[in-house]
Amino acid sequence: MALMDDRTTRDPQLSQLVQAIASSSLISDNSMSLQASIDSSSLTLTAGLDDAESIEQLGPIIKQISESQKQEAFIDQLDAFIRKKDGEIERMCNANYQEFVNSVDQLLKVRQGSLSLKRNIADLNKSLRATGDDLADKKMDLLEARKVQNNLEKAMDSIQDSLIVLELAESVRLKMENGKHYAALKILDRLQTQHLKNVAQYGFAKYLEESVPVMQNMIKESVTAQLKEWLYKLRGTSRKIGMLAMKYMQERQDRWRQRTAENPKLKSLQHHNVNSAIEMVVNEGNESNILDEVDIDFEPLYRCIHVYNTIGTQNEFKNSYEEDRRAQANLALNMPINLRDGNMDSFETLLQDIVGFFIIEHVIMHSTTDFRSQAEVDALWEMVTTKVIAVISHSLHGCRDPELFLQIKYSLLIFNQTLEGFNYPVKNLQETLLTLFQRYSELLINQYSENFEKIVQEDECMPMTVNIQEELDEVMQYTRYQPDRDILKQYGFPFTLPFSKVFPTCCRDVSIFVHQFYQFAEGFSQTHGEMDEILKKAVDSLLITKVNAILLKKLESTNLSQIVQIIINIEYFESTCPDFEMLLMETRSFHRAGPIQLRATSTFKETRQTAEKRIFKVVNLKLDEFLELSEYDWMAEERQDQPSPYLFDLVTFLTNVINAALLNLPESIKSLIYFDALDHLSHAMMDLLLDPNEPAVTDIALQNFDVDVQFLEDFVKNLGDPTIVDTFLELRQLLTLIQSDNAEEFLNPQMKNKKYARIQPQHAVIVMEKLMRDIPTTTLPSVREKMRRRAMENVVR
């Protein structure tokens, strides 16, 4: 230990090393968990004196020792602990002394080497510092050069970006000057979204950025102005398009009508309208595109759409365009129209404008995307059609001219069919046409009702005379009448026809009425059944309520010639009703319907029968007038050989009636008239014989009465008509029975059926009673006379 202490004192570095070893040993000892117990004070010292934790533990221990006043005991214990540790150290050093010396020698050698190494390192450090300073200077120079290079590159990039921006700005200016607005907008968009960002720090870029909206607005205003000009010119173009479209539709209608009329296979398809599926198949390939013949440049519109879409204001443009087109439509609809003066030019122009307007709308809607919707166009179409209907209704208010309704129908039908071909709904316009048709049919019926009434009222009921062949041809054109060519050739003109002028005139007017009716009905296949029924009822009404009713009223006349002529006219009307029915079936809109039957046929038949009865009545009234002139002396005592004078006049009247007034009547009607007149005469003479105011009659009076009957029988026989031979048979049988000697034969059934079948028993009884009341006062009755009277008494009983 002494040696170690001496060495350490001589060598300060060794002394520091020993202290370090001792400290290391001490720390090593302290790091072991040694416990020192202070038995006397019951204090326990934990020898874990490492770090701050051990120091912190000493505080409470020292405090406790101080408080317990056992400092001396603690110091003693600590001294003992130190002596113990010193002993251990001494024993350790004694055991390892040589090794310790060797270690110290090695450490000294190491120290010398480390000092040499330190000098070398210091020299090397100095050399490196000299070299590093030079390198640092060069590095600084390089960094400066690179900074300059970067600045130059940035400057060049900025200049390049600025040149690009300026070139694009100039390009925008040139594009705008050349009218290439869409290209200019695309360049502006590139400037705004790409290039201006690269030069945003420069003042000119800020100026350009502020100018972009201005230039966009200038472009928008420019294309909008061009569009306005295009819309203004489009109005005249629309009219031309509408005129051509309606012209083509008319040609298409004519072509379809001609094909269905000429081709037997297509004749059954006449009721199919233009635009129907069948018509479109038949006419496929024959239609041309209207726009091919009208030069319409839609570029201004498309340019506007592109520009506004690019700017992002497409809704603004759509609304503006909608307002402009609506204003144009209203401008066309505000055109003054007065149809009541018969001038259709303004109305035709209106329809052409509308057709062209909506054809263009159709093209725009189908050639653009998300610009014109179907709902917008339909709303505009509905507005226009509503106003068109209002214009028509207002213009035709109070109109009484059917021809004007027909002209409007033609124009409106072509208008409907033209726009229907472009898929526009025309239901409201079809309903308007139906309304016009109803008014037209009413006007037409009223017009022809007045015509028919005038014709029939003014008819003189005299046979019609034609003076030339053309007049006869016109009669034959509208009636089934065919004259006897031999008679016509023999007697020539003027030629008398059996009917009066009312018949061919009414037939002509019926034919014209039907064709005028179907002129309006053409194109209404949806309601063909209703229209056919309306026409049928109208024709029936004209024939029944006008022709037949007025003729029926004229039958009140007592002029036989007029009545006969009315019968002849009615017969011709009755026989012509099937022709009217055929005319209706041939011209009606739906040819597959069933047969048509007019009530006028049966009505004319009833009127004819009424007219015949009227002739019977007039003739019988005239016969009654003659009979009133008869002055039979039923108590006559003087026989006469000649008929009564009134019978000559009566027979002359009947002869004149047959040969003159009834000349043109058919033989069957003549026979009926004769039969009815003679039958009436027979009954009238029977009534004279049975007159209850004459209680008695003489045989001579009966003989004189028999002369008159015989005269009439001879007249009947001379007529040569077998249907009227037996007219006076009952009267003849009665006179024969009364004048016979054996009146009792009447009681024999066989004889009665053979000779007296027509006699009514009560008539025979009345006459026999009258005869029996005649009692001769001058002479006595003979046996024959007595037997005759007895036989009559038996019959009477």
TrEMBL record:
Keywords: Coiled coil, Exocytosis, Transport. Gene3D superfamilies: Dsl1p vesicle tethering complex, Tip20p subunit, domain D, Exocyst complex subunit Sec15 C-terminal domain, N-terminal subdomain. Residues 428-770 form the Exocyst complex subunit EXOC6/Sec15 C-terminal domain. GO terms for biological process: Golgi to plasma membrane transport; intracellular protein transport; vesicle tethering involved in exocytosis. InterPro entries: EXOC6/Sec15, EXOC6/Sec15_C, EXOC6/Sec15_C_dom1, EXOC6_Sec15_N, EXOC6PINT-1/Sec15/Tip20_C_dom2. Residues 77-246 form the Exocyst complex component EXOC6/Sec15 N-terminal domain. One of its GO terms (cellular component) is exocyst. It holds the Pfam family EXOC6_Sec15_N. PANTHER family: EXOCYST COMPLEX COMPONENT 6 (PTHR12702:SF0), SEC15 (PTHR12702). Component of the exocyst complex involved in the docking of exocytic vesicles with fusion sites on the plasma membrane. Belongs to the SEC15 family. This is Exocyst complex component SEC15.
